[in-house]
Amino acid sequence: MKFLKRKKKRKFIANKETNLIVNNVGKIVLKKKDHLTIEINKKKNEICAFEWGMYATSSINKRLKKEGFKTFLVKNNYKKFFIMLVDKKKMKSFNSYLLSEKSKIYKKLG
């Protein structure tokens, strides 16, 4: 695994219509069979690299539920789809985000 931290955060607009700004802080490069845990608010998600691609999330119906996440397939107003892991205690904030970004839950996955 290689972590490439940006010397200076790069701010950019992720959604021009709603002016959502995010920070690009770096990049992680995984080798085959590397496993990486990402943590936010003491909740974890795992990514694992393989020759054929990667597991992008921990198991939706077991590990993520245990960590306190709800998993959704979300469609934005540009008809793009995203898998979103939502802290079950932050659903109000998530729903506000969906409204502000003009996105909708397409399907609850877990």
Give a written overview of the molecule.
By secondary structure, the chain is mainly beta. The chain has one domain. Helices cover 14% and strands 55% of the residues. It has two helices and eight strands. The strands form three sheets. A three-stranded antiparallel beta sheet has the order 3-4-5. It has a three-stranded antiparallel beta sheet with strand order 7-6-8. The longest helix is centred in the last third of the chain and has 10 residues, at 91-100. The chain is globular and about 35 Å long. It starts with a strand and ends with a strand. The mean pLDDT is 95.
Give me the count of strands.
8
Number of helices: 2
Order of strands in the sheet with the most strands? Answer: 3-4-5
Question: Quick one: overall form?
Answer: globular
Strand content: over 45%
The secondary-structure element order is EEEEEHEEHE
- Supply Rg: 15 Å
State the secondary-structure class. mainly beta
Q: What does the oligomeric state look like here?
A: single chain
Instruction: Give the overall average pLDDT.
Output: 95
**Main beta-sheet strand count, sense and barrel state:** 3 strands, antiparallel
**Uncertain regions spanning at least 5 consecutive residues:** none
The total domain count is: 1
**Roughly how many Å apart are the termini?**
29 Å
Helix content: 10-25%
